[in-house]
């Protein structure tokens, strides 16, 4: 037998299957709320004008495509620091920032760094979580300790279960946390819960690993980072996997950043040498194009303001749709309190399938749906169909 004859096929992500099913359905009135990108009311995912302008500047001014070096665009990472950490924390000693291919690259690099630092580290993961989190963590060779984060039927966070899991953690364990706009539930920790989480991390010696892929799409740039910044104040070491793919709308260009709070410049040098070693084996150097575009936006007051306006507009649409869905029935009122692109309907996979068959409404088997995946004029029809399925 050859190398591949013993391979068993891997079940494809059910979300990818859903995308295909939706694409094949040509019934009029189809509502595709499965896919996880921002959409305008007419179903488009447009390129932000701030990005277009930055790309034009880049095209006009870039003189070489020669290698930029292993750190990628250093200015890009420096300009992102105040956005993620705020002006004060951004100045702290020993804060590493490294450009990565998307949030995925930052997650992979961060978990591999944790593995290199302490092979026995375990990762606390609240479920449900983004489908790619567990494979990335296992791929880095780390053990996962799961706890229930969200009670779908009750449409609320199971904070007691979360705290029980943190109480049972060992010093040096890592806790994966969604910075904002929890995917897939939309259920973010409130300020009081964040305070308890950071106190617990500090007390138990748990290292927070914050995945922040939707900053600015919940309540606003600073508001969405409050939980993260509180952790950075409270804990000696913090890992952050950041993505610009959603808030700059550059999904396919893969723009992200890994940040590590190490505590000192001296420690940062050592940690950075490991990060570089790991990154070298995976992508050697991160792709340049849209990180450069993001840098150009952040360097210019004018383009920065334009980007923030466009981000406000995206967030505004998401918040409006949330309010409309929430006001359709008391059972959906929780949708208005949740953040970001996703929420979860308390539906069984059978009910989700019935929506697909009877109404051409496409959402994930879990009941996760993209709030801004539907057109304005489809909201009532969407709500009525979901409520009918719930009865
Ligand atoms: N984290 C979460 C929670 C996500 O939902 C995603 C993307 N869907 C990512 C990280 C990765 O984002 P990127 O496309 O930048 O790799």
UniProtKB/TrEMBL annotation:
GO terms for molecular function: identical protein binding; L-aspartate:2-oxoglutarate aminotransferase activity; L-tyrosine-2-oxoglutarate transaminase activity; pyridoxal phosphate binding. One of its GO terms (biological process) is L-phenylalanine biosynthetic process from chorismate via phenylpyruvate. The lineage of its organism: Bacteria, Pseudomonadati, Pseudomonadota, Alphaproteobacteria, Sphingomonadales. It holds the Pfam family Aminotran_1_2. It comes from Sphingomicrobium sediminis. It comes from the Bacteria. Its cofactor is pyridoxal 5'-phosphate. Residues 29-386 form the Aminotransferase class I/classII large domain. Keywords: Aminotransferase, Pyridoxal phosphate, Transferase. Homodimer. PANTHER family: ASPARTATE AMINOTRANSFERASE (PTHR11879), ASPARTATE AMINOTRANSFERASE, MITOCHONDRIAL (PTHR11879:SF22). GO terms for cellular component: cytosol. This is Aromatic amino acid transaminase. Belongs to the class-I pyridoxal-phosphate-dependent aminotransferase family.
